[in-house]
Amino acid sequence: MGRGAIPLVLSQEGKVCSKTVINSCSDCIKSGAYCTWCKQLNFIKPGEQEAARCDTWAQLIERGCMEEDIISPKNDFSSSKNISLSNTALDKGEPIQLRPQEVNLKLRPGLPHTFTLDFQRVEGYPVDLYYLMDLSYSMEDDLRSIKTLGNELFNALQGITKKGRIGFGSFVDKTVLPFTNTNPEKLNKPCAETEMYCQPAFGYRHVLSMTEKKAEFESKVNKQRISGNLDSPEGTLDAIMQAAVCGERIGWRNSSTRLIVLTTDDGFHMAGDGKLAGILEPNDERCYMDNNLYSKSNEMVCDDMRRTQISIIGPQQNYMKHTIRDYEKYELSKMIPKSEVGVLSADSHNVVELIKNAYNRLSSKVTVTHDALPDNVRVTYTPLCPEGGPSGDKGVCNNVGVSFNVTVTADECMQSEISFLIGPLGMKDKLKVSLSTLCKCECENPVTVDSQYCNGKGQVNCGMCSCKAGFVGQKCECSIGEKDESSLRAACRKDNGTECEGRGDCVCGICQCYTLPGGSTYYGTNCECENESCEKFQNKLCGGNGKCRCKNCECKPGYEGTACQCKKSDEQCRTPSGSVCSGRGTCKCNQCKCMEGYQRPYCLTCPACQTTCITKGKCIECLGFQTGPFSKNCSQACTSISEFKMVETLPPGKPCDVRDVESCRVFFAIKQLDGEDNYTAQILKTRECPKLPNIYAIIGGSIVGVTVIGILILLFIKVLFTLQDLKEYRKFMNEAQKTRWSENKNPIFQEATTTVANPTFSGE
Q1: 162: Cβ contacts below 8 Å, ≥ 6 apart
Q2: 730 CB burial (10 A radius; 0-12, 13-18, 19+)
Q3: Which helix (H) or strand (E) is 668 found in, with range?
Q4: Is 208 helix (H, G, I), strand (E, B) or coil?
Q5: The pTM of the whole model exceeds 0.70
Q6: Is the distance from CB of 6 to CB of 115 less than 8 angstroms?
Q7: In what residue span(s) does the Integrin beta subunit tail domain sit (predicted)?
Q8: Relative orientation angle of helices 351-363 and 150-160, to the nearest 10 degrees
Q9: CB 208 within 8 A of CB 250
Q10: What is the CA radius of gyration of the chain?
Q11: pLDDT in tens, 22-34
């Protein structure tokens, strides 16, 4: 066991081996963390399945397996690199802050292993500080202040470590709508018209690689000019990502604490904001720098910063209160766990003090976690410090020298070895964990060929016989000869189901049934029967009053029930008349089990059945008045009515009635006797028949009615015509009155000019 390993001591109490399908030692080891395999010869009894070799250590010992024959792989831990921690950064070589550096783990699935991880922050450890500044137009005053603070920044860095370096970069926003005005003139000069010194819009620009020269830093910063964009949020995350992944351009050292000092006065764009500009491709965490400019600013969106291994110090302007809350509580700490937020003064003159305070807070807090893991691997951390908190997927301690218990669990077997890294956030020091699983048994490589234990027809493999071709059986005792093995096995399947119902081995086409835990065995042609799973009563098989035979209870005389739980008696099933369940059920366990529809306790009534007033109506008509559809075979069709009487009056109560073929109402009373279809009836002698109608009155009335209706129709037509004629006459008279005749003489008319006198006329 290597340094840092904590032996896992577990008592046998609470250990369970949840076996599934076990056909070999490997199947047993894979089925549970506490499953062990007995390779001892003759350990299982004749007819017992090989899966009986798989159980917990305690159970196998109890059943007689020798300890040396029990196979139970143990977790294996070793340290392949375990260099002592460095005291100061002045030691020769690269400082060591984490121990161990490389470990190898071989784990049984489901069985956790715990080891210790030590961390000691080295005094004077190198620091690389990258000053990343927002150059949007609102940061003009801050840029002027930073140009004068170069000397103070270097002094502050020297106060932290003698091996400090500083770099510089700037950012604004993506140069696409709606983030930046894409008018060519505005892209070239995005500031106000009165601003003389304004550089074109850009996403992120790397200005100065890591340097120890103060003059070079001041020279580069003094050349910076303000720029601008449209909206308030900035392209901060793009800039941080490129500064983190472009290690060669930035000049990050492998053995240094990496800090990015982020100064801005507003929030930052999230990945979802890219949809506004049609940018959907996620950042692939690769460096894309062209002439020190981020070349894919308008093609990718970024929101996952957890793997950057960079610590962020994020000063914010004090008048942006909502932005400070976002950076401090919601956004920055989630994306970059090693981050601190402070409040800048209006012109950023207090940035040096903020950097000192933030670095002290970051350096006094150690957060240990891991990179991406497969779904079937779990890692938890238990801090060994006073205020470390509970165990979880990361460990946190507020101290420069701390230790953590690291617990690794593999839930399932893995095909090949995997590796992952564990280490403190924001630092390059990492522990490499190489992990593989123990899912095979060492005994699975046979040595003895044609073992006598296998009747010379096979070899022993983990206590089991692996038979030659043409031989089968627990000890290769069966020769299948020219027969096809599949046809022999088919004889052991009932209705093409499972071989021997899964309760035995098919040997030479015959089922050899397994032994049950209680000592009895399965039996039957296909091992379909057993005598231990019958119904229980009061926790006794068949209530202690019978025997279990092939899953069914055979009760002793005087007992009955599915679990022989009842004494035979019909006392509670007898009606006042002395019948049992009214002849419409059986008495089981002194209770009536009624026929369908009838109700307990005595099966007297059947609410769901059709009323007898309807079902027996035709028989009543036939028996009482010899009419109806059953009149020709009344005695055969109506045997269910064993007795009937013709009476003058019916007993009190609402009687039944039915209409016969002559439309007369027949009244009767019917009563059900013991039995399913047994009745007695009383039939009223007098039927209630309707009176015959007066045919002559109906015919005469019809004729008179038709005549009257015809006359009324003729009168109605006559009135209509009269009214129509009257209307036309009035219309004619009105038009005649409106006519005016001309009194002028006819121009072609001439009066007579010849006068003829009668000579004989005397005038008298």
Answers
A1: 124
A2: exposed
A3: strand 665-672
A4: strand
A5: no
A6: yes
A7: 613-694
A8: 20
A9: no
A10: 54
A11: 888 888 888 888 8
